[in-house]
Amino acid sequence: MVELIKVVDFNFEYSLAKHKSLSDINLNVNSGDFITIAGDSGSGKTTLLRQMKPELWPVGKRTGEIYFEGQPISKLPKRESAQSIGMVFQNPDDQLVMDNVIQELAFSLENINVPTDVIQQRIAELVSFLGLQDILYENVQNLSGGQKQLVNLAAVLILRPKLLILDEPTAQLDPIATKEFISLLSRVHDELGIAIVMSEHILDDVLPLSNKLWILEHGELKAEGSVAEVLKSISKDSHLKSFIPDVPYLFLQEDLPNKLQLTDLPLTVAQGREVLQANHVKLNGNLQVRADESQQPVVAKLSHLAFEYDKNGNYILNDLNLTVHKQDWLAIIGKNGTGKTTLLKSIMGLLSLRRGRVQLLGKKLSYWLKNTDRFYKEVSYLSQNPSDYFSYDTVREEFVERAKQLKMDNPESAAESMLKKLTIENIADRNPYDASGGEQQLIALGILLFSNPKLLFMDEPTKGLDPIRRQELGNILEKLQVEQELTVVMVSHDMNFSAQFATQCALLFDGKLVAQAEPHQFFADNFFYTTTVNRMLRYQLPKVIQRGEVTP
Amino acid sequence: MGMDTRQRRPRVERVSRSTLVFEQLNPWVMFTYYVVTIACSMVFLHPIFLLVELLLVICVDFVAHTGKQMLMVLEGSLFMTAFIMILNPLVNNRGTHVIWTFGGTIITAESIFYGFMMALSLIIVLLTFLSYNKVLTSQKFMYLFSRISPKLTLLTMITLRFVPLFISRLKNISQAQKIRGIAVTKGNSRQRGLGVVKMMQVLLIQSFTDALQTADSMSARGYGSGKRSSYQRYRFSTRDFVSLAWYLPLTGLCFYAASRGIGRMTVYPSLGTIALTPTGWLVLLGVVLLFSFPLILEAWEWLWWNLLRS
C-alpha cells in the first residue's frame, strides 16, 4: 500500500477571513482507499478537498505541509497534477466545456499534449469501460444531469489518475442517478484501483463502499478512522448523529452491536435485515400517524390539468387531478423529468396550461393572474434555485427591504424576528450569495414568508442540504403549519424527508398523480419506492417508515 | 506512424461528413470565410448588394440546417429593422430630402434609408453567426486560438457557452423576482428600471459563480499547463489550398473596389442613384461568389455524386 497523500499539521485561513477554515489537520490517503468526508455545510469539506489539488488552491494563508507521493504537493508540476489527481465537482452543468461528449473526453488529453493516435485509443477503451458509446456524439447540453456527471467523471478518468477527488458529486442528482453514479465509482475503485476521496451529505449509498470516514466540524477533524468506529463515536453527538444513515443508526440506537456481539456494523438493508432476523430481534414501532385534514376547507383544487411544451409534443401533464386541504403538507414524489417542476410552475401561472382548471384559495387562477400583487402574497412559490430570489447585499437588507415593500410598520424588527424564526441570525450581515445551499434556502423562504402566505409551493426544498439543515427546514415548516395554518405542497425525490414531515404523499407518474394517501399508507403499499427503514423492517413492522418511529 | 494515424482518425470526420462539405475544410479556411462575410456585409452599404447578401446567407443557413433558429432570427429582425428605421432619423438629421418636420426634428429620406441599410447589414451578421455556431465547433475554435492565447480562448469559450444559459436563467430569475414583488413589467418607469437592474445583477452574479467552476474544471484537467495536442488533426489539404487560391485574391479585389467607392451607395448629403455601373455589377458578382463559397462546394459535391461519377 502506497501513501498517496499525507497532510501534516495543516492550517488554512482564507484571505480577509477572521478565523481559520481548516485547523490542525493530519491525514493520509493510501492507494486503495475509498474515503468519505462528511460534515455540515461550511465545515470545510470543499476547502480541504481543494488543498489536495494545487491548481485549485484558494487564496489564503496556509501552514503545515501536504505531500503527494512523498513530495511537497506545492512542487508538483501542473501537468503531473492534472494527470495524477482528478477532480469532479458538484454542479454537472458547469464542468462541461466542449460541444459533444467525445470532444469533452479529448479535451483533457489534448491539454496534456497526448498524441492523436493515443487519444484515439484511450477514448476507445474508456468508452467501452463506461458504456458511453450511445451518447458519444450527443450534444452535452441535451444530456440528463446523471449523464452529464458521468461524462464529467469520464473526462477525468481518461487522464488515468491515481487519486480521484469528488466534491458532493451527487448533490444535484435524483436518487436513481445517484445510485448509478455511485455504483460506477465502486467499479472505478475496485477494478482500476484508483483511490477515492469524496465528500457527501447523504451517506446511505457511499458508506458500504468506503473503508474510511472523516468527519469535519468547524474546520477541525472531529473523527477519522474506519466507518464503523467513526459512526459509533459520533452516535453520541446530538448534532452529528443526524449524518448516520438509517440502518447503522437503528443498530447504534438500540445498542445492538454490543448486545449481539457483532463484529461488523451493518450498513445496507440486506445486511441489517439478516442480522435482525438471525438474532430474532424484535423492535417496537410507534407510528406517528399524521393528522387527517380532510374535514378542513379545500385550498387548492386542480381538475383535468394538461400541459405540453410543443404543439405535437408529449403530454407532460395529462388529466391531472388534485385536492389539497388547509394545513395539509403534501409531498409529490417522482423521478426527475416526470413533470414535477412543470406542475408547480403551471399552478403558479408561470407556464400556460393547455387544458384544465386551477382553483386556489377558492378563486380561479385567471382571477389571481389579474391580481398578481395579492396572488403572490397569499400563494408563494420557492423554486429549485433559491439564489434567484436575492436582490440585496446582505441577508438583513433582503429582509428589511421586503418588509418595507410590504409596508410593514417596523421593518427592522420584523426582519430581526424573521432571522430568529429561521435560526439564521449568525449570517444576518453576510452576502446571501456567500451562504451555503441550506442557508440560501432559508433566506429565500424568509423573503416569501413576510407576506404570511396561506399556501406555499416548494420545488425540491431539500436538494443539496445536509441532514442537519434538512431537519431544521422541516421543523420550521411544521411549526408554520400549526401556528399560521400554512398549507405546503412540495415536489421532491427525498423520500425520507417526505416520510418524516408530510401529511399526504402522492406519486407523479405519466402526467397523473397516483396513490395519494397518508405517508404510512403510501410507503407501506410501495415496494420499490419506499424508505430505507421501511425496507429493512417491513417484515416485522410493516408500517414503520422513519427512524423516529422505532423505539427501544 | 503517420499513415497509421490517418487511418485511425476518421471517427469524428465521419460524423461531420453527414452535414456540410464546408465543415471538412481546415478551420482556418472556415474562419476566413466568416471574417470576410461579416466584413463584406459592413463594407458594401448598397441596397442591391445587401439584399443579395441576405439571400445568400439565408441559403447557407438553410443548407447548414439551422432551420428553426433562422426563422426566429428573421422574425426578430422585422422588429429590429422597423426599430432602426425609426430611431436613426430621430437621432440623425443629416440629408437633403426632408420628408417631415416636427418640434425641431427633421426627418429626412436619407436617414430613413441609411437606417434600413444598417438594419440589413446587422441582420446579415446575425444570420451569419447562426451557421458559424454550427460549423465552427468549440474544438475547432480551440484549435485556432488556444496556441495564440490560451487565456483569451478560455474566456471566449466560457462567454459563448453562457449565451444560451443566460436566456433560460433570465426567465427563472424574472419569475422568482416577480413572486417576491420586484416586477419589471409593472409600476412606474423608475420601479421598472430598478427591477431590471436588480435582475441583471442577480444574473451576472450567478453566471460569474458558475463560470468560476467551469474555469476550475478546465484547469483541473490541465488546460494551460503547456503545449496542447489536437485530437483531430486539421491538415491543410489540396482542397484548402485550392479554395484559398481563388478566395483570397477575389476578396482583395472586392475590397479594393469598395475602397474606390464601388458597391457603396452615396446617402449623405443627398441620396445617390441606386443603379449599378458595369464595374458595380462585376463587383457584385465577386461578392456573390465570396458569399456562396459553402454553396459552391455543396453544389460541386452534388454534381459529382449525381452526374460525374459514372
Automatic annotation (TrEMBL), chain A:
SMART domains: AAA (SM00382). PROSITE patterns: ABC_TRANSPORTER_1, ABC_TRANSPORTER_2. It is a peripheral membrane protein. It comes from the Bacteria. Residues 5-243, 300-535 form the ABC transporter domain. Pfam families: ABC_tran. NCBIfam families: PRK13648.1 (NF010167). Belongs to the ABC transporter superfamily. This is Cobalt ABC transporter ATP-binding protein. It comes from Secundilactobacillus silagincola. The gene is cbiO_2.
UniProtKB/TrEMBL annotation, chain B:
It comes from Secundilactobacillus silagincola. This is Cobalt ABC transporter permease protein. One of its GO terms (cellular component) is plasma membrane. Signal peptide: none annotated. InterPro entries: ABC/ECF_trnsptr_transmembrane. The chain crosses the membrane at residues 31-64, 70-91, 112-132, 152-170, 241-259, 279-300. Keywords: Membrane, Transmembrane, Transmembrane helix. The lineage of its organism: Bacteria, Bacillati, Bacillota, Bacilli, Lactobacillales. CDD domains: EcfT. It is a multi-pass membrane protein. PANTHER family: PROTEIN ABCI12, CHLOROPLASTIC (PTHR33514). The gene is cbiQ_2. It comes from the Bacteria. It is found in: Membrane.
